[in-house]
Amino acid sequence: xxxxxxxxLRHGAQLTDEDAERLVGLAASAxxxxxxxxxxxxxxxxxxxxxxxxxWACRYKQLGDGRRQxxxxxxxxxxxxxxxxxxxxxxxxxxxxxxxxFARVRPEDARAAARESPRIEEALWWxxxxxxxxxxxxxVSFGRRSATERMGHLLCELHARLALVGLCDEAGFALPLTxxxxxxxxxxxxxxxxxxxxxxxxxxxxxxxxxxxxIHDREALRTVSLFDxxxxxxxxxxxKREPKRVASALTGSW
Amino acid sequence: xxxxxxxxLRHGAQLTDEDAERLVGLAASAxxxxxxxxxxxxxxxxxxxxxxxxxWACRYKQLGDGRRQxxxxxxxxxxxxxxxxxxxxxxxxxxxxxxxxFARVRPEDARAAARESPRIEEALWWxxxxxxxxxxxxxVSFGRRSATERMGHLLCELHARLALVGLCDEAGFALPLTxxxxxxxxxxxxxxxxxxxxxxxxxxxxxxxxxxxxIHDREALRTVSLFDxxxxxxxxxxxKREPKRVASALTGSW
DNA sequence: CGGCTAGTTGACCAGCTTCAAGTATTGTGG
DNA sequence: CCACAATACTTGAAGCTGGTCAACTAGCCG
Lengths: 254, 254
Description:
- 2 copies of one chain form a homodimer.
- Chain A is α+β, with helices and mostly antiparallel strands.
- In chain A, about 40% of the residues lie in helices and about 20% in strands.
- Chain A has helices spanning about 5-10, 15-25, 105-115, 120-145, 145-165, 180-185, 190-200, 220-225; strands at about 30-35, 40, 50-55, 55-60, 70-75, 95, 100-105, 170-175, 205-210, 210-215.
- In chain A, the strands form 3 sheets. Chain A has a 4-stranded antiparallel beta sheet. In chain A, strands 1-7-3 form a 3-stranded antiparallel beta sheet.
- The longest helix of chain A is centred in the middle third of the chain and has 27 residues, at about 120-145.
- Chain A is globular, with a radius of gyration of 19 Å.
- The N and C termini of chain A lie far apart (about 50 Å).
C-alpha cells in the first residue's frame, strides 16, 4: 500500500481492504507546494483538513516580535488537525519544510467514514491519541530535558514515526531539516543545535551528513535521551506491557 | 446550570436543555480525592475517561531520575482525554492538585451522545480543538517565551478558562497552587518562580496573597505575556474576527 | 512550643544565547 | 563547467537567564 495515511493507520486498527480504499478516497485531489511555503496562515478560515501525502511540513507560530516556534513536525500520512472539526480560523500556521504534496479532507467525509466503519473510527481515534501523546512528550522535553536530551529524543521520535510509514531503515533516515529548522523545533539557537549535534557525533551515537541521519546505537541514543516509545501506543498486542508502576509515593506528597 | 462540563460546552455549541441533561448523565457517579493523590498512574489500564467536576488536577510525567513535569492543568469541566477512545495504558499520570471530585465517563457513552445530538458532537469536538490549541500554545511558551512571559501567559490562560465555568471574577481568581507547583507547570525552579512573581508584583500587574490572584491590569498583563486569547476559540460570532493576515509571503495558499 | 511547609533572599554557577568571524556546501547565471 | 553568491555549518568569546545551594522568615498545626 503506497498511501502513507493508510499505512500509518494500520498500526491503530485492523483495516480491511475496503476501509483502506475508503480512506484513500477521503483524500481526493493532491496539491503540491515547494519548500518553505505556507499551506494555511494564521487568520485563514480553512475549508478542509490537511493531510500530508509526501514531504515534511510543520505547524508553527510566529510571535509579534519575530520569534518563531515550530510546534509540531508533520510527516507523510499525518492529518494536521483532529479529524472531526474545522477550526473557524487558524490560530497558527501550517507550512512546508520541504516540497510537499497534501490533500484536503472534509471533516464531514471523515466522520462519515468513521460512522460507517468501526475500524476506521478506531484507527482515527488512535491517531489522535498518539498525536496528543507526542504533544505531551514535547512539553516534558521542553520542561525537563537538556538540549542534548531534547535533540536525541526528537531524532528517536522521528525515526519511530517514519518507521510507521516505511520511510526509514534500521540504521537511520533522510533528515531534510537544516540546523536552523531544528533550532526552531527544539527552542534552541542554531549555534547551540550545532554544538549539541557535535556532542552526539563525538559520543559516537549518530552521523549526520548530506541530509542523512545514521543512528549507530539506537539503544544508547534512547537511553541518553530518556526516550521511552510507550507513548506512541504501538503495541496492538498490549497484554505484554509491563506496568512500570513504581512503589507508590502516593500517600504523602509527591 | 451548576455542572461545569455543560457550562463550558455551551461556549462551543448551542446546547438544548435535553443536550445538557444528556451530558450530565454521562458523568454518573462522582469520586472524591484529597489533594496530591493519583487519579490514574502511568502504566494503569484505564476503564473510563476522567471528567473533573470540582477542584484542580493535572496531567504529569515523572522522568526516571525524579524530574517531574506537569503537562497540563485540569479545571472543573475538563475532560482529561479525547472523548472517543480509551488509551490501552496510561503513558503518564493524572493527579489531583487540590481536593478533587471527578466522574468516570465511558467513551461509548460519549460517542453515543455525540451520535444522537449534533450539538453535543459539535461541542465535544470544539472542546478537543481548544485543548489541542492550548497544548500548542504551551509549546510556544516553552520554546520562545521568557520565564516572566510564561508565568503571565499561564495566569491569563487560567483566568480565561475559569471564566468559561464561572469560577472567577473580573479581578482575579483563587489560585490554589504553591510556587513549587507553578514551577513544575512552567519548567522553572521554585526559586525562580518566586523571583518572577516578585517582578510581576513590583510591576504592579498582579497581587498574589493567601491563594488569591488579583490581576490589576489585564490588558497590560496580556501585553507583557504576549497573550492573544484567539487560540481559545471563544467567538461563536466569528464573522467579527479580523484575519490578521500579513502581506502574504505566498502565492499558492488556499 | 516545636516541627513542618511555603515563601524569600543572596551568592555563585551552568547552560544556552548572542555576536562575530570564518569555512563548507549548494545553487545559479554566464 | 566555472565563478560567484547565497545558504548552511562551525568555532570562539562574552554575557544573560535561570538553576542550585544555603540560610532565613512566616504561618500553621499538633
